[in-house]
Queue: 2 jobs
Job 1
Amino acid sequence: MRTILITGPGGSGRTTIAAATALTAARAGRRTLLLGADRLDTLGAALGTATGAAPVTVREQLTVWRPDAAESFRTDLTVFQERASAALDLLGAARLDAEEVTPLPGAEELALLRAVRDAHLSEAYDLLVVDLPSTPHALALLALPEELRRYLRRLLPSERQAARALRPVLGRLAGVPMPAEWLYDTAARWDLELAAVEAVLADRGLAVRLVAEPGPAGADAVRAATLALALRGLRPDAVIANRVVPDTADDPWAATLAAQQRKTLEEWQHTHDVHRVPHLGEDPRGAADLAALAVPGVNETGSTVEWPVVDRLAEDGVLVWHIPLPGAIRDELDLVRRGDELVVSTGPFRRIVPLPSALRRCTVAGAALRDTELRIRFAPDPDLWPRTK
């Protein structure tokens, strides 16, 4: 299954573009699932058909689904309370009824990630189009599976399960209950679910499309999003320049706006595959308006980017890790080695990445930002590197 993730700054029209993209694919004969997380039915408003928590077929080959984050959160909390009843009783905690539970921040994101996973397990669709939240929230969403898996591994390491027979003894010695078997089982199940989502986000067929209005604010948003995506090993499949005003506008105000848009479009064309979507003069509503937007179809290119390790041992005695970071500024870059992980920070964005196996036996020998690529040099550690005869 191909997946297209669509995001952009708030008010850029990303939901409309997502609906138009899904409709275009369905008309081309692809069995398409359009997935959204907005509490309001903005997808339904764009398509002219109400959508909700149950998948609904809005036309031939096109299904729309907005997962119910509240119901998913209530179900998870109820199960947790049942499994943790002994610990909750020990603490004297009062149980929460499902009716009084409201989703906490992040529940919508988790529900959307689960829906993405479930869609990929289904054989009913050829294409998944995801209407992501606005860019800052979308970037946090894309980072969530990796970060949660890292937290789980640190808090409940799988190797500790080998000592399960000792937990009752350790509990008596410490005077507090040790984590129960169900807690480790739950952590393992969550890890598998998050790994499935990570696999979707790392698939070569994944495409990420940025929607923005051409102009100073849109240019800043695209620049920041491109850098943040690069830190996650992704690049935009396309930039959708939305609400483009015709160059032939006679009105002075429209002519000034068209000139400003033209300048931004010229800049984008140097670094991105740009698709222009015309301004219709009104908010698109219904299939006819969406078809008039002429959004790009599904292509075979993906958005994942390789971070290769280049062997330069014979020439320079080092291995070089190449990390593409378009738009990064040298003074805003920071690298920290922590055991077998590398903390990469660029401006407001940060990612903790595990080192490739060969680099774990090396020490960092330097780094440089050249063109749009961060190159980190690693020298073999004599105490860890295999000796040659």
Job 2
Amino acid sequence: MLKFFKIIAILEGISYLVLFSNMLFVKHNNPELYHQLLFPIGMAHGLLFISYIVLTIMMKYELNWPAKKFFIIGIASVLPFGTFYIEKKYL
């Protein structure tokens, strides 16, 4: 289960960065391409984000994480590069 959680954490972090790069770079250079990419990238990121949060809750009970560790790992999903840091330091 921990290996699957690590994979989801990495994929969630990548999707977050791809979503940001789409918003920052593609939007101003090619607005039509931006709108074509927004839904699939946003949908993938949303599903990965929800999976990350659900797996974080499951892993808290499975591995008896203290509240502080659970909070830090959960908050990392909203910070750019947060899931990469968590994967290296806490997992």
